[in-house]
Amino acid sequence: MPRFRYKAIDETGNVIEREVVYPSEEVLLGELARSGLSLVRIERIDEEEKEKKSIKITLPFGGGVSDQDISIFCRQLGTMINAGLSVVDALDIIAEQLPNKRLSEAAKDVSAKVREGMSVSAAMQRHPKVFPEFVVNLVRVGEETGSLDTSLLKAAEYYEKIAMIKSKIKSASFYPTFVVVVATLIVSGILYFLVPTFAQIYEGLGGELPLPTQMLIAASNALRNSLPAIIAFIVIFSWIFRYLYRNNYTFRKAIHRLSLRVPKMNDLVVKSTMAKFARTMATLFSSGVALERAFEIAGQTAGNIVIKEAVDQARKAVMEGEPMYKALDKTGLFPKIVIAMIRVGEDTGRLDDMLETIARFYEDEFDKTVDGLIKLIEPMLIVFIGGVVGLILIALYLPIFKLGELIKS
Fold it and tell me: Which UniProt keyword terms apply here (predicted)?
């Protein structure tokens, strides 16, 4: 459907400027008339022009905006509004203090548009690369209910939780990745620099070398002769993988499906996904966002395409009248405890409370799983790397143990 931008004045004299989707301009004009709004200006927005405008607005602002940045922004704005400052004054103050240039410039633009009469949510919606849909929807509900500060503080708390989950995932993956990279460099250094020196010594002595030493020297020669090709392969493979993951939906979905099947990893993925899903649903639902919209946003924030498609499937079933717990159960991806708690929430009319309980439960379980994996991986990596280096050194020094036999022969 076509998108329109209009500017109107309501019965109290307030200026309203919004972007909306309607079947036609005539339908929109009729709706505005029924709402008692006096139209000042209306224009149809071409999607292509809108996209260009969006790019123009967001690209010059610099680096990306993290969950932590959004959390700080929402908490500061919510606190200032709660303290009695106007939205415009609060935005102006925050924009000058934000360390993230992109977010700072977006905040300045939002302040300018609000000063012109646009709603905060509509102004934020102009910056889709800065303000997520989650924030825009919470702000819109806050504006409609007169509790903008509360909505912003809820958004801040939500992004603090999400940032904590992502930080845990990074910390869980950083240590083993770092150890493997360092170990690979050490082993490569031994093969590239140390082994050839010993090979020359053994060659001068003559005699037949033990099989492990022969294999080690062969590996060293292969590495030295093929190093440029190996580096090129790693770079090209990494680039292709990254490109496909970013641009190919089928490839990304296959990786996400694999992550749900690999032992230990699937436990981590499921718990982090359930925590994000429940936290998103609980925050949006308790704030008054429509259930269908809450489902859409929760699916987008799940972080896993397979889970997202399952959430979309459940959303359609719920919109057709099926209970939420049944719709989620049919996907086969949601744990039984989630289904049971949602059913209790629906039966008792306390779905938002149950979703909050599920979120807290899986956030705690996720923390325990990450800590357990780190404790399990650390000794395993140390033993594995120590074993590899030990075998290399044994193979390297084995001929020395038989030096007398080599000299005699």
Answer: Cell inner membrane, Cell membrane, Membrane, Transmembrane, Transmembrane helix
